[in-house]
Write a structure and sequence with these properties.
Helix content: 55-70%
Number of helices: 5
CATH architecture: Roll
Number of strands: 3
Number of domains: 1
Order of helices and strands: HEHHEEHH
Oligomer: single chain
């Protein structure tokens, strides 16, 4: 009887310790470094849950694209802030504002060269869970933004030159990363 109690208590202690303080680790699809942004790609993943599979898919799609757009936006803002900081002049703030409005315009129209790299759907009971992963090649995104800047009527020639120069620098970095 004592041996049985000891074995039961030991089994409970061992199983409690194995789950850790945070609980059991869960590995979801499209996780890990292969699905994270790097020097060649902007990447985003999303997860959606619903009792209707099309709604779950829509939620995952929106979440993945929002993650992707926020990365692109923050990268471009960092580049424009860095550029304005290096080349401070009386029109520096205006250049930054124009650059950020160009970014918003690009985000509102579409993401250039958006590619779905995976989608998985699961059903448990009456609930669907969908995972989606997207990527955008950085050099394609920067080329698209360069084209948008060149046809934008609201940007004067001097500002276009500055924006083109910023995008050329980023394109050079992205193209070098593609060669690796």
């Amino acid at each position: 009887m004592v041996k049985t109690c000891f074995l039961v208590i030991s089994a409970l202690v061992i199983s409690a310790c194995s789950s850790g303080t945070f609980g059991k680790r869960v590995n979801e699809p499209f996780s890990g470094s292969r699905y994270e942004s790097n020097n060649r790609y902007f990447r985003g993943t999303g997860k959606g849950e619903s009792s209707a599979d099309n709604i779950a898919r829509g939620k995952a799609d929106i979440e993945a694209k929002a993650m992707l757009a926020s990365q692109i936006n923050s990268t471009i803002k960092q580049v424009s802030d860095q550029y304005v900081g290096q080349r401070s002049n009386e029109k520096g703030a205006d250049v930054s504002d124009k650059f950020e409005s160009l970014i918003r315009e690009v985000m509102n129209t579409n993401l250039a060269d958006l590619r779905k790299v995976g989608e998985q759907k699961y059903k448990k009971g009456n609930k669907y869970t969908v995972f989606i992963a997207y990527e955008v090649k950085k050099n394609a995104m920067f080329r698209f933004m360069k084209k948008q800047a060149s046809v934008n009527q609201q940007i004067d020639e001097r500002q276009k030159e500055i924006i083109q120069k910023i995008l050329d620098e980023e394109l050079k970095k992205a193209d070098e990363a593609d060669k690796d």
